[in-house]
Structures are given as structure tokens and as C-alpha cells.
Amino acid sequence: MSNHQSFWILGISISDHNGSVCLLHGDKIVVAIQEERLTRKKRDCLRTPRPLSIDYCLQYAGISDKDLNLVVGCGVTSTDSVMSYLRKIFPSTPINIIPHHLGHAVGAFATSGFHDAAILIVDGAGSRELDLPPQELVNVQESNIPVNLERREIISLYIASGTEIRCIEKHLGSWSRGLNFGSIGDLYETVATVIFGHNESGKVMGLAPYGTVDKKCEDFFEIINNKFVFKQYLFPKAEYWPKNQFAHQNLAASVQAATENALFYLVQRLRDKSISQNLVFSGGVALNSVANEKIIQQKVFQNTYFMPAAEDSGNCIGAAYYGLWQLTQRNTQYHLVHDSLGRYYSTQEINQAIIETPKVKSYYYPVVKNIISKTVDLLEQQKIIGWFQGGSELGPRALGQRSIICDPRSELAKDYVNSKVKHRESFRPFAPAVLAEEALNWFELDSSNQDSPFMLRVVKFKEDKRQYVPSVVHCDGTGRLQTLTSARNGIFYDLVLEFFKRTGVPILLNTSFNVMGEPIVETPEDALWCLLYTEIECCVFHDRIVYRSDNYGSLLDLYPYMIASASNQNVILEQNSLSNKFIKDSCVYLSVQNRWGKFSSEVDKELLSMFPFLNGKNSCRVILNQLKNKQIDPFRNIDELSFIKILGLLRRKFIINFSAQPLNKSQVISLI
Question: What is the pLDDT of residues 61-99, one digit of tens each?
């Protein structure tokens, strides 16, 4: 095993959100996946006793636990608890543990292609001070941390060269999980909770351009002697969005401005303390693509790299490369050019998914140029298309592997996709995917720094071009840019190129292939079911285009039946999956199974009353009427769309499935 190319190394990100696994063979990423894509629970942590993502990776590589040379974990809980968790899964494999911010730093630097770099990590909170090794506790700066909260890393500055990454400054703060905040990431998520009732930070960034900055940075925090002093800002009591829109817009604008000020300060400080011309930025705050572009425009560093999986999912990559470097003492300067790290699904697997999905029909296109031509035909007809190609993206941005696409020339497309497909707020913008060679003609870019492969820069459109692509131009004239090349993006580039040849517009609207509240689709089955419960026109796979059957109306026409079994677990459900309201009540855990393994899936106890009706004998429409006629809560006044959302939720949780026809008794698996 002396040849570094023969090492199998498994990196595991063990966080309370966005848990993930990455498998290296030598210095190449074989596969990487977030747990959420497999359990279908957004931002899911790693499941116990054995995460689905481990077997997803090992099965794809055709290896087992005994083939692994090293497992490296990166967590936010104590080192002992992370080691104990991993040792139960891998009783005989060597295991290393690294702290959270170091995982961010290694993952970003290892995939940057740089020989040396200055690295900035900013997030909500990382490892506890107690779990940080001495070499991480360098030039420690403490924010005002309440005595009842743990001291955690919130900002880290590193310098890197080869396989050495050295911490040069560490800021400690706290993660409050309330309406107070103790870090930049915590501040942003707190504002998201104040506005929307949940911590979807990306919504704040999209809302900010509609508002006016009416609060000073000092209202949120001050920087005194290089220490961040966070204020206990008293957020006014207000109803969630869409109520109080004016105040919410201004709050979003103000916190965005404050976040940018913090980052500008940190980037300049890092520049002053390092000699490298290369900036690497990661951690959850690095997904703030508005701030990223302003960092580039300031030209404090000559080169910048924003890791596509900047949030905690990317730490599995950092853990894996840390292990590789420990074994080989060699950094091959791997450059990640496309965030397509999921497994590839064969034509046979796609065909099987089509056969097993009710009420769909498919058309075969053996020649690639023909399927591209047909897809462009549909785009020109203003159709909304699900685009499923190759391996899925690890990070949160859909980059042409698991995308929903449409013609950006229609003024109505943005509202239609938001309301009828994504089921989300109308203000949220969509990204323009543009041919790289045309980017300078459409966007206000510096010719020396025009690449944006990971959709992590928000750039202004040229004013004379905005009228041609209104559905991807945000209210401030910007777009979250993705630049495409043939080498990097393959068939997705070819599709946009063909669209350009026909229309003169080198841009498509590109958004993630999912609906609000669920993860990006991973499997062909996920994509087909998204087709059935949204108003997407079709799904384009490698060599097939799949449509809904002509006689399909909605999920209400199908026959639902239980595929889950009861578990004896009862837990406190922190958030009701069917609303934005927090509840203090129990839910039931059900034992479910998918192609990756068995796990538990929680369901709101209020939905249990419908389970006896889910026996495969009656259609969803009949069941809805039965529930309403019997005055069964919470269904007595429910409308069809809300009921369809519940049905979709239960299917995504692997609790129910559907048949096109009634099932006989022997075909139904009953809930015990």
C-alpha cells in the first residue's frame, strides 16, 4: 500500500446539518454525496446507526469497509463523541478526527488548484474550543460570549502551502439558536428566522435588493481591537413574510450590508497577514454570492476560489484530503472544475425507474444532437424542463446535472416557475447559465476574471441586455452567474449553444431540480416523481425524454398504499413539516427503506389519522373526500393542493407509494 494512488480514504462530515461522505481513491474524488439527497430530508444530518451515504459511496466504487485504508471524520461535537460514533461503524479501520474549520480549509484548498493560498473560513459555528488542538488556537480573538454558551470557532484565518495549512488567527464566539446571535453566520440565520420563521439564509440574500439599509452595521456588531462584539439586537415583533414586507426588506438589506462589511474587514486582514496572492473562501457564509462578487471587485487578492460545497457538506472532502496528505505528504494541486460528484445512473437504471413510475411515457433519442434539438424545441415553446444528467452536485447549487431549465426571454417565466414548479416566494431570483465565451457581452465583468463555474458570484447584467432575458434579471439588474464551457459542462453547454444558435440568446434560466422544502433530486425516481407533482413539462435524461401520460391529472388520480412499518420510537418534533410553525408535540418514527438501506422517517402525528385509508383500494381523490366527509382532523377543510403536498411529502419520506390501479389485499403492505 505504499503507492498513494492505491489508497481508499473515506471522509465524513458529521454535523447537525448537511452531513456528507466523500470517497477518495488516490488523489481523485470517486464520489461524494449529502445524506439529505438519500433520506429526502433537507439539510439532514448523518443517520444512525449507519448513514446511507456511506454505502452509497462504497457500493458505487465496488468496495467494502475492509478495503478502506483510512476514515477521517470532521464534526462539531466533541472529539470523543465523533470517534465513538465512527468506531461503532468501522471497528477495525484506522480513524482520524479533525476540527470543523480545518475541514473547511483543507477541502477548499485541496480543490482550488493553488500551490499556496490565504484561507478564510466564516460560518455559524464550528468546533468547541475544548476540542481544538493547540495549533488551531493561535492569536485567539474572543467575541462577547454569554457564560451559558460554549465557546466555538466562528472565524478562522489560515495560510497554506503544499500539504501544510497553518492557522494564523482564530475568532471564538457562540451559536445561540435563538433571536440572539454570536457569529456572522448566526446573525444571518437569525434574521432569516425573524423574516420567514425558519433559517433559510438564501432567502434573505434574495430579498435584500428590494430593501433599503436603515440599520447601521454597529446595530448588529462592532469590531473593537480586532474582536467582533455582537449586539443583542432587539428585533421588533412582526408577523412572518409576506406580512410587513417593507420592514422585512429593509432588515434583509441591512444585514446583508453588515455581513459584507465584516467580510471586507476579514479579507483585508488576511491580506495583511499573508504573502499569497490567492484567496480561498469557505464556510456557510461563502455561499453569499453577492458578497463574493464585491470581494472580487475589491481586488485585494489576485485570484479567488469559492468552494461550491462551502457549507458543511464540503467538509467530507476536507476530511478525505487531510487523510490523504497524512498518508502521502503530497498535494497534487487537484483543481475541482465541476461540482458533479454524485454517482452516475445507467440507462438500465433510468429505464427501470420509468417502468416503475405510474402515469409516465418516454421517448428514446439514441443520437445526442437529436435530444438536444428536441429539448430546444420545447424551450422555445416556453416549456419548463427537468434536466437530469451525470452525477449530482454535492453543493447546494444546481449546475446542469440536476436542474430545472427554461427560456429566460419570457417575462412570465420567473413567476410561473416560482409558483407552479418550485412552490416558493415570488421575489426569489433565478440564475442565468451563460456560455463562457459570451459572458463579457452580457455581464459587467473584468476580462481578467470572468469565470463563475459554481454560481457563486452575483454580477450586473449590461443594461442594454436586460430586456432580452427578464426572467433571470433580479430587481437590481443582477444575476447569480454560471459560466459554461464545453470541457467543463459537456451536454449542458451543448444545449445552451444550440439555444443560442436559434435565438441569439446564450443563456438559459437554471434552478435546482426540486421544490421548496425538499433536497435536490438524486435518483431518476426522484426526478420522475417531481414531474408528477409539479407543472414541469418533462424530464430529460441521457437519451430519453419523459412526459406525464395523457390521462394523468394529478396525484389525486393515483392509489396510495403504505410501504412503511411502525417503530416504537416517539420523539419531539422540532418543526412541523407541513407548516412554518414550531410545535411542541410528539411525532412517530416509521421504519422505511430505500435502495441505500433502512432508516427511520418521522411523521407528524396529526397525519396518522389518514393512514388507515391508504390501503391501495381507493384513489387519493376518494380518500380526500372520505376524510372530509368524516370530519377527520386536520383534513376537514383541506383543499386539494394542500392534500397533494401532504401526499408528496409522505412519498418523499418513503412512507407511501402509489399505483396507477387499485391493489388487491395481497399486494398491500399494511402499517402494523
Answer: 999 999 999 999 999 989 999 999 999 999 999 999 999
137-187 pLDDT, tens digit per residue, is 999 998 877 766 789 999 999 999 999 999 999 999 987 666 678 999 999
Contact (CB, 8 A) for 170 and 136 = yes
d(CA 441, CA 291): 23
Instruction: Please tell me the distance from the alpha carbon of residue 217 to that of residue 158, in angstroms, as a whole number.
Output: 26
CA 546 to chain centroid, in Å, comes to 25
- pTM (2 decimals)? 0.94
DSSP H helices, 40-183, are 52-61, 79-89, 100-110
Q: Which amino acid is at 104?
A: H
Q: Cell 430546444 appears where?
A: 376
Q: Do 205 and 88 share a structural domain?
A: no
Residues 496 and 413 in one domain: yes
Rounded-to-integer distance, Cα 606 and Cα 646, Å: 11
**Beta bridge mates, 561:** 615, 657
**Residue 22: which CATH number?**
3.30.420.40
Instruction: Return the H-helix or E-strand segment holding 494.
Output: helix 491-503
Name the residue among 309, 176, 158 with its Cα closest to residue 230.
176
Task: State in Å, rounded, how far the first CA of the chain is from the last one.
Answer: 50
Q: How many independent structural domains does the chain possess?
A: 4
In order of 341, 453, 483, 484, the CA distances from 487 in angstroms are 16, 12, 12, 9
> Which triple of cell numbers denotes residue 161?
502551502
